Amino acid sequence: MPHEIPPARPEPDDRYAIVVAQWNQSVTSVLLEGAIETLRAAGVPDVHIDVAWVPGSWEIPLVAQRFAEGGLHAAVICLGVVVRGETSHDQHINRGVSLAISQISLQFDVPVLFGILTCESMEQAVDRAGGAHGNKGSECAEAALHMVGLLKNLPGA
């Protein structure tokens, strides 16, 4: 039977960064609440959760990169909402931000979680921020906790 590597439990000194977009704040604030509640439930104290608000989702990667390169945070959680409009603007935002987030994670060897909702409508966004489809901010925080723990237990870590 193969050896499965379980994630380690969160450690008291682990710090988490959350970068959240102000654009569509009625939704992003709910995502943020979900992420913070999940981190707290895992034993992460408020003083180890750093939150930075940026104007919109496009600005998330730069601040996420600063957090990742700083070496103080075990993971960076990125939260935003991009809703399709009448033009292709949303596609350019989504593509650029998603590529940047993945590159930051690999470059700095830090989990950088993609919690940016890419929706067809505000109704879909609300459904994913505490509505019918759960809270994607909370799910992002759960993924961050899992990845931090897994990386600690990987051989050679």
Automatic annotation (TrEMBL):
GO terms for biological process: riboflavin biosynthetic process. 5-amino-6-(D-ribitylamino)uracil binds at residues 23, 57-59, 81-83, 114. Its EC number is 2.5.1.78. (2S)-2-hydroxy-3-oxobutyl phosphate binds at residues 86-87, 128. The keyword Hydrolase does not apply. Catalyzes the formation of 6,7-dimethyl-8-ribityllumazine by condensation of 5-amino-6-(D-ribitylamino)uracil with 3,4-dihydroxy-2-butanone 4-phosphate. This is the penultimate step in the biosynthesis of riboflavin. This is 6,7-dimethyl-8-ribityllumazine synthase. It comes from Lacipirellula limnantheis. The lineage of its organism: Bacteria, Pseudomonadati, Planctomycetota, Planctomycetia, Pirellulales.
